[in-house]
């Protein structure tokens, strides 16, 4: 009888331990490292929303426009984007370009990049009307701040986050202009909608008129400047703007390389592990050698999946996501590096 009670107690303790461990793993985005209290998005990075694709259109050459509908979709504001989990598991970020007032519906536009990493090709081939789209709740690192005057600049598919801003600025009674460039007129989506704004919009197809003339930015020194497009366009806007600090940019490619720094050491405080990070690799790559199950997604400093708390050491932040307050004690392993010889992560 005593042996039976002992076995029962041991089995019960093992069950409780396993259950606690499962809960611990679910809470932590970087097991066995500890979870951050609040994910960057305000929602769990593991939580996926699911919505059917109710419409698919082609508003320009090489561009598909997808609309999903579900009562579960959270509210959003101009400048927001979503992480889309493709059928293969690849994760890509796309700006919401519909109307925030149209609750329960999201619209995204995806340009096919023939020499890209494969995500746009998969989206074009497999995201068809009637299919289920998996995505994470919207995040907004490109919010539209109130201003009396705006100068919007878009290049190619970079028009997507700008489009809802035009509607919001118009509704607010603000003065604004849009300079919209692209390779060809046929490749530039939303031209019919933009035509309704009249001479506030300047369309510049490169094969017809060359590169956009940014000199008008100097004529509006007090305007809030919002730009999304290829990196050369954003660099040109920063150079042309009277006040570069008034320029707000939206990027979907990394602005800085993940390697190319000095080697450093990462110490995982609680587990006692020490990881060497080479000069030509990211901190995430090094951590994955020791912890192959470390969650990550974009590898470009956008999604926040690999964010972790830093206890000691100085970080060279290379992301476009964290705020100054968040950078005080956190880093994104995929792009950021150590500015010191050693970093200690809470573990």
Describe the protein:
It is a single chain. With 347 residues, the protein is an alpha/beta fold. Helices cover 22% and strands 28% of the residues. The chain has 8 helices and 18 strands. It has helices at residues 2-27, 119-126, 159-171, 191-195, 206-209, 231-240, 283-290, 324-327; strands spanning 49-60, 63-69, 81-85, 91-95, 105-111, 132-135, 149-155, 175-182, 201-205, 224-228, 247-250, 264-268, 273-277, 307-312, 315-316, 330-332, 337-338, 342-345. The strands form 4 sheets. Strands 4-3-6-1-2-5 form a 6-stranded antiparallel sheet, covered by helices on one side. A hairpin with a 5-residue loop joins strand 3 and strand 4. The longest helix is centred in the first third of the chain and has 26 residues, at 2-27. The two termini are 43 Å apart.
Rg, rounded, reads 23 Å
- Number of H/I helices: 8
Identify the overall geometry: globular
How do the strands line up in the largest sheet? 4-3-6-1-2-5
Euclidean distance between termini CA atoms:
43 Å
Strand residue percentage: 25-35%
Mean pLDDT: 84
Structural class: alpha/beta
The succession of helices and strands, N to C, reads: HEEEEEHEEHEHEHEHEEEHEEHEEE
Question: Helical percent range?
Answer: 10-25%
């Amino acid at each position: 009888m005593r042996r039976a009670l002992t076995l029962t107690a041991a089995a019960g303790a093992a069950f409780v331990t396993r259950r606690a461990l499962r809960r611990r793993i679910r809470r932590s985005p970087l097991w066995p490292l500890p979870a951050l209290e609040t994910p960057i998005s305000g929602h769990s990075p593991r939580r996926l929303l699911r919505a059917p694709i109710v419409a698919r259109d082609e508003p320009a050459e090489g561009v598909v426009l997808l609309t999903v509908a579900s009562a579960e979709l959270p509210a959003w504001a101009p400048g927001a984007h979503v992480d889309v989990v493709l059928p293969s598991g690849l994760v890509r970020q796309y700006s919401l370009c519909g109307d925030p007032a149209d609750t329960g519906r999201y619209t995204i536009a995806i340009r096919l990049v023939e020499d890209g990493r494969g995500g746009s090709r998969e989206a074009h081939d497999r995201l068809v009307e009637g299919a289920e789209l998996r995505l994470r709740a919207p995040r907004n690192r490109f919010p539209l701040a109130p201003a009396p005057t705006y100068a919007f600049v878009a290049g190619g598919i970079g028009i997507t986050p700008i489009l809802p801003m035009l509607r919001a600025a118009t509704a607010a009674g603000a003065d604004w202009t849009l300079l919209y460039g692209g390779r060809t007129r046929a490749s530039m989506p939303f031209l019919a909608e933009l035509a309704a704004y009249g001479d506030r919009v300047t369309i510049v197809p490169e094969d017809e008129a060359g590169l956009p003339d940014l000199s008008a930015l100097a004529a509006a020194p007090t305007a809030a400047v919002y730009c999304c497009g290829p990196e050369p366009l954003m660099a040109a806007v920063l150079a042309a703007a009277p006040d570069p600090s008034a320029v707000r940019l939206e990027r979907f490619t990394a602005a800085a390389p993940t390697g190319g720094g000095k080697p450093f050491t990462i110490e995982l405080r609680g587990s006692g592990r020490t990881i060497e990070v080479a000069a030509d690799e990211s901190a995430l790559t090094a951590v994955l050698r020791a912890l192959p199950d470390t969650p990550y997604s974009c590898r470009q400093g956008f999604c926040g999946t690999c964010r972790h708390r830093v206890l000691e050491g100085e970080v060279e932040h290379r992301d476009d996501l964290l705020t100054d307050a968040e950078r005080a004690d956190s880093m994104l392993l995929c792009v950021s590096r150590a500015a010191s010889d050693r970093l200690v992560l809470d573990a």
